[in-house]
From TrEMBL:
It is found in: Membrane. Residues 12-89, 16-79 form the G protein gamma domain. InterPro entries: G-protein_gamma-like_dom, GGL_sf, Ste18_fungal. This is Guanine nucleotide-binding protein subunit gamma.
Length: 89
């Protein structure tokens, strides 16, 4: 019976250890800063309206000359410059 009691004690200790680890994890998650979904949406809207995204030329236009290193590497005739390795089509 003594070995059974030792086994029960070890099982209970393992259960307690797992519960304490879970409790610590939940405490750390509770300390995170949280914002509401509506505030997160407003933050995204503000960011996207302030930052220029040239992938949407209808909204932001085209990037100024000299700022697009992919376009500047190509010559006007569509040939590769010496500094480029390939053309993506």
């Amino acid at each position: 019976m003594d070995s059974q009691q030792q086994l029960d004690l070890k099982i209970n200790q393992l259960k307690l250890k797992r519960i304490n680890e879970l409790n610590d994890k939940l405490r750390s998650e509770l300390q995170r800063d949280r914002i509401t979904a509506s505030n997160a949406c407003l933050s995204l809207i503000n960011y996207t309206t302030r930052k220029k995204d040239y992938a949407l030329p209808e909204l932001w236009g085209y990037p100024p000359r000299g700022t697009n290193h992919f376009r500047d590497a190509m010559t006007a005739a569509g040939q590769q410059d010496v500094n480029t390795c390939c053309i993506i089509m």
